[in-house]
Every structure is written in structure tokens, then in C-alpha cells.
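stage 2 :: seqdesign
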């Protein structure tokens, strides 16, 4: 929504609309070529996706830089991030949904108070954009680290990114390997000596 709003705001007069829409279409085509043709040769996962989600937040902060009270913005940013880190400590037992709700509520309050303090919604939007960028980076890194602990193979081609994950101790009766496409399981093989040749997941009876 933010990117679409900025594009609409930057739209030129009728005499330059043709060039504007041509460059807009060219940007979409180049992005599609990069994601579908170039990126699979360099990345074994959708690593460009988190960056594309985080960058708009930083752009929002940059566009509103003239209306920021920087000392307060840095202070509010540090408070929200430090609060999130504190809540995630092992000594503070909260579930993930509660953690997300608490940090989101604090971020919304900080952004709203920043807008009220600066008498400008743009100032609050800039802070919120920076917080969203940090949240995307944190979620991406934590999810990758969690998945890498059990990932045996990760590949990507034009059609998508796949990985093979190991669950349980290899060779144990309850161990299994799954073929994953994102969060979707496309098959599972049990690893026990007897069970490994049995059909499972939606291939089973």
C-alpha cells in the first residue's frame, strides 16, 4: 500500500504519463526476470523476498526524514527493540502469539505517540517503517536458523525452492524426512528399517 501510494503521488502530468507507465512496466518485468531466471542461479531459497519486504520500511523512513525528531525516534526505536529482545529471553515465558501481540501493541503505540509528538503522521509512519524492517529481518533470520537445524538439502530452480528436512534421529523408528515447498509438505518418508518403504502423507491409504 505504501509503495502504491508513493507511485500515485509521484505520477507526472499527462505529457509524461507514457514514460511513467513504461518505466513502471519495465521495473516489473526486470523484477520478474531477476526472481525467475537470475536468482535461482545464485540463491537456494527465496532470499530476495525478505529484502523486498524490509526495504519499503527503510524507504518510508528516508522519505519522512525531514519531519523526524531524530533523538526521540532513535529512543523509541531502541525501546521497542529492547522490549522485544527482553520478552524473548528464556526467563520470560510467553507464547509466540502473545509475544507478537505485545511487541506489535508497543510498536503501534510508539508510532502513534511519535506522530502526536511531531504533529505529523509521517513521523510516526517513518518509525513504524523502521520497526517493520527490523521485524522482517528478525523473523527471516530466526526462521532460517530454525529450518537449517533440520535441513539436509535446499535447492531452487525456475519453479520454486525445495528442501529436504530431517525429523528425529536418523535411523530411529520415529524418524522421517520430508520434502518441503515453503510450508507445504509434498511427501514424507519414514526412516525405520521396516517403515521406510511404506507410503505416507497423502500417498498413503
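stage 2 :: out
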Amino acid at each position: 500500500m505504501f509503495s502504491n501510494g508513493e507511485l500515485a503521488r509521484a505520477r507526472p502530468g499527462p505529457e509524461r504519463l507514457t514514460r511513467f507507465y513504461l518505466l513502471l512496466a519495465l521495473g516489473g518485468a526486470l523484477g520478474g526476470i531477476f526472481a525467475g531466471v537470475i536468482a535461482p542461479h545464485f540463491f537456494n531459497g527465496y532470499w530476495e523476498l525478505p529484502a523486498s519486504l524490509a526495504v519499503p520500511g527503510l524507504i518510508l523512513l528516508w522519505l519522512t526524514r525531514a519531519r523526524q525528531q531524530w533523538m526521540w525516534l532513535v529512543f523509541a526505536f531502541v525501546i521497542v527493540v529492547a522490549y522485544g529482545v527482553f520478552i524473548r529471553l528464556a526467563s520470560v515465558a510467553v507464547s509466540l502469539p502473545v509475544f507478537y501481540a505485545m511487541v506489535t501493541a508497543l510498536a503501534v503505540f510508539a508510532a502513534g505517540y511519535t506522530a502526536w509528538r511531531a504533529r505529523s503522521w509521517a513521523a510516526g509512519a517513518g518509525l513504524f517503517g523502521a520497526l517493520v524492517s527490523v521485524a522482517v529481518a528478525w523473523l527471516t533470520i530466526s526462521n532460517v536458523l530454525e529450518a537449517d537445524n533440520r535441513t539436509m538439502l535446499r535447492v531452487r530452480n525456475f519453479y520454486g525452492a525445495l528442501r529436504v528436512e530431517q525429523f528425529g534421529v536418523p535411523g530411529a523408528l520415529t524418524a522421517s524426512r520430508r520434502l518441503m515447498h515453503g510450508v507445504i509438505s509434498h511427501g514424507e518418508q519414514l526412516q525405520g528399517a521396516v517403515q521406510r518403504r511404506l507410503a505416507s502423507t497423502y500417498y498413503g491409504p
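stage 3 :: structure notes
- The CA atoms of residues 187 and 203 lie 8 Å apart.
- The chain has a mean pLDDT of 77.
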